[in-house]
Amino acid sequence: MTAADSFLPAWPLQLPPLLWFAVTLVVAAVAGEALYRRLRLPRITGYVLAGLVAGSLDGGIVRGELVGPNGAVGWAAIVAELALGVLLFELGNRVNLRWLRENPWLLATSALEALLTFGAVYALLIWLQAATNEALLVAAISMATAPAIVMRVVVESRAQGQVSDRLLVLTALNTVYTVIAVQLLMGWLHQSYRGDPVSAVLHPVYLIAGAVLGGAAVGGLLRVLRNRLLLDDDHAAAVLVGVVLAAVLVLKMLKLPVLLTLLIAGLLMRNVLGRPYAWPRGLHAITGLLVVTLFVLTGIAVQLEHVIAGGLVALALIALRTLAKTGAVLLLARPSGITLKQGVALGAALTPMSGVAFVLTYDLLAVFPELAQRVAATVLAAIAILELFGPIVVRWVLHWTQETGEAEAPPMPAARIRPLREPAGDAVSLVARAVSSQRGAPTEPTEPTEPTPPPPRPVTLRRAA
Length: 465
What we know:
Blueprint: H1 17-39, H2 43-56, H3 61-66, E1 67-68, E2 71-72, H4 75-94, H5 98-102, H6 104-127, H7 132-142, H8 147-157, H9 162-194, H10 197-228, H11 233-254, H12 258-271, H13 283-301, H14 304-331, H15 333-336, H16 340-349, H17 355-367, H18 372-400, H19 427-438
Antiparallel strand pairs: 1-2
């Protein structure tokens, strides 16, 4: 390049990986909307497919820039945990813990399905001759149900009823069980791999106590801001996202569990600190963007080598995990006040795994990289499969139990060219048009739009008579 053309870009052009990520976001949004409108599939399926394809292009260059060997790096990690944090805060804000006091069989169902899932997955991996530490970790992570998938499918399908409301409660409880179990196992791993009994005791205590105190601080701050400031929807959404983002950054700086802290903040906001947090309408658009980004990132993070290496074990894990969750729910369906059909639907809807399992896996690998090859292959292969098919299962069972309240999605409108202004016409036609409009003549139909989902109504989780 000479001095005369030094202002020109270097050739060949080097496209930055962030540009591919931006293109992937556009493709994901279009694919998700097309699958929803054409095939009545959840939009999340399109987001994950776009991420999987982007992660495999050009030798995985996008994955290498956004997701390193120990998980998402830089802003990608912040965005993923911000999206999960907002969704978990909303999930906690929806759960009324009085339901558990009024219907203790619901808490028993939650505990039984989590314990059966843990035991079944652990027994499977031990039978496959996995190490005890690895089997314990995978079994603990397998207890979790994906809150991001459950929340988005329930909101998208406008589901209300016994199955959908119990699904939200059990998902929140599963997340609590999983995060606490993983934190306790981290103490075990400190003793097993490092020979450090002090860290084995203090590390889990620090993590769990810090999560409870952090959740109380975030919930209290939001309560004060809600009561003292009269904000419109747009500014209230900005305040909520800003508080959650600040909490994510502070918690990561303190090395505290982000997911558990924000879920506890939502639970405390609903059940201890007063009435539920009024969800700003302007937050739906922000949440939608965060969800697309989250599932694109998790799709990019999945490597084909992991799916091939852990595919068969992951399929066995998924089958046994589904049987354990469904069997536990069915066993206590009648005492908890639902029919066997609803029990089957609820057990099947608890199968998705996604963001929580993804973040916990990479958090563990960051502390104990020696587990990377064996644990990552099994868990990430299961996540890849359940991210694709889990949303479809949840949507189908909610439709099967007739709890969805969504209207049929309007067809994609064809492009039409309209004149900028109508011809004036003569005076007689103008007078006739004015008279007919005053008499209530039908006007030209407007483009249909997707209805805004209404705020959730509380449903009493009934007990058996």
